[in-house]
UniProtKB/TrEMBL annotation:
It is found in: Cytoplasm. Residues 84-172 form the GHMP kinase N-terminal domain. Pathway: Isoprenoid biosynthesis; isopentenyl diphosphate biosynthesis via mevalonate pathway; isopentenyl diphosphate from (R)-mevalonate: step 1/3. The lineage of its organism: Archaea, Methanobacteriati, Methanobacteriota, Stenosarchaea group, Halobacteria. This is Mevalonate kinase. Belongs to the GHMP kinase family. Mevalonate kinase subfamily. ATP binds at residues 112-122. Its EC number is 2.7.1.36. The keyword Lipid metabolism applies. Its cofactor is Mg(2+). Keywords: ATP-binding, Cytoplasm, Isoprene biosynthesis, Kinase, Lipid biosynthesis, Lipid metabolism, Magnesium, Nucleotide-binding, Transferase. Homodimer. GO terms for biological process: galactose metabolic process; isopentenyl diphosphate biosynthetic process, mevalonate pathway. InterPro entries: Galactokinase, GHMP_kinase_C_dom, GHMP_kinase_C_sf, GHMP_kinase_N_dom, GHMP_knse_ATP-bd_CS, Mev_gal_kin, Mevalonate_kinase_arc, Ribosomal_Su5_D2-typ_SF.
């Protein structure tokens, strides 16, 4: 039995625009998906996903065709859920040159689903790592990140960047621009997350931006402007001392860029009333800046605040179901049981 866990992430800046080749800076946070992989005698894959609905469910299938789950879960949820685990298993089989390998897989996660914290990437990264290790063919981190990206790319119909999967694999803050992915030295930023209890459909939201961008030059310009602000943000991070707590002036400047980034994402149609409400609650509470994180449509916002004011204000904000401090996960994917 092999167990691996991989972190979720917040976007400091650059989601959506990163899909079109602009740079983005996500940072891994200490909320993890844990995947257990146990090789089987046959070629079946049995998946237990405890967190996918109130009751969780178990599904067993061979060669990618899902049987009925054990409990009553709507089929689209099962299909949506199985997509990522299925793609991770396929990548592991391919990497280990074991096309008929079967597994018992268990997924547990404290990353809210579809909320912009990269639960899909964490499940795929931990899944491929656990399954390849279970077959005695561990991958180095770069290859693991690459295979995890390919899995997300497939499930999201060719609409995925390398940002989430690279960040979850490496941990810490990273910079992604097209195929170019590098860890960056960043100071420990005081992230506060607000979660509206809901989710957005990543594929649909990405497709919406794609259409807007194709239709209007000003939407394409908006995407480019996001790239410009990411470059400005990177410059600020590069000048900061990663060993020290960030200076108030740095937080103020990063916060201003986050506010700007949220405005541009809202212009691209991916915010939501609940996300805007949480962003404003954070700003009113004195956060340096706040923005939605991830695909949007519902889910999470991220704010910068070293005091407790934002977390407290969010916890009293109508529409915010959970507010928490998100510590930087300096370690990416890791082995819990070899
Ligand atoms: N605990 C889990 N168990 C199984 N699958 C999961 C789990 N968490 C996330 N997933 C998969 O990831 C999908 C959500 O990914 P996505 O829509 O990209 O949102 P995000 O990555 O922002 O959380 C879920 O529909 C499911 O397929
Ligand atoms: C919108 C996007 O930039 C980020 C999606 O993040 P999440 O899956 O919502 O956590 C898509 C991508 O980069 O693949
Ligand atoms: Mg995702």
């Amino acid at each position: 039995m092999t167990v691996c866990e991989a972190p979720g992430k917040v976007y400091l800046f650059g989601e959506h625009a990163v899909v079109y080749g602009e740079p983005a800076v996500p940072a891994a946070v200490e909320r993890r998906a844990t995947v257990t992989a146990e090789p089987r005698e046959d070629d079946h894959v049995r998946v237990e996903a405890e967190d996918l609905s109130l009751d969780g469910f178990t599904v067993e299938y061979a060669g990618g065709t899902s049987d009925r789950p054990d409990v009553d879960v709507p089929t689209p949820l099962v299909e949506a859920a199985m997509g990522y685990v299925d793609a991770a298993v396929e990548q592991a089989r391919d990497a280990a040159d074991a096309p008929d390998a079967g597994f018992d897989i268990t997924v547990e996660s404290d990353i809210p689903l579809g909320a912009g914290l990269g639960s899909s990437a964490a499940v795929v990264v931990a899944g491929i790592d656990a399954a390849t290790r279970a077959l005695g063919e561990p991958l180095d981190r770069r290859e693991l990140a690459d295979r995890a990206y390919r899995a997300e790319y497939e499930v999201q119909d060719g609409q995925a960047s390398r940002a989430d999967t690279f960040c979850s694999t490496m941990g810490g803050a990273v910079r992604v621009e097209g195929d170019d992915c590098e860890p960056i030295d960043a100071p420990n930023l005081p992230f506060v997350v607000g979660f509206d209890g809901g989710a957005g459909d990543t594929g649909e939201l990405v497709a919406g931006v794609r259409e807007l961008r194709a239709e209007h030059e000003f939407a394409a310009d908006t995407v480019e402007s996001i790239g410009d602000l990411v470059r400005a943000g990177e410059g600020l991070l590069a000048d900061a001392n990663p060993e020290r707590d960030p200076e108030p002036a740095l937080l103020a400047e990063l916060g201003e860029l986050m506010d700007f980034n949220h405005g541009l994402l809202a212009a691209l149609g991916v915010s939501a009333r609940s996300l805007d409400a949480m962003v404003w609650a954070a700003r009113d509470a004195g956060a340096h800046g706040a923005k939605l994180t991830g695909a949007g449509g519902g889910g999470c916002i991220v704010a910068l605040d070293e005091s407790d004011a934002t977390e407290t204000a969010l916890s009293f904000t109508q529409g915010c179901e959970e507010a928490f401090r998100a510590e930087l996960a300096t370690e990416g994917v890791r082995v819990v049981e070899p």
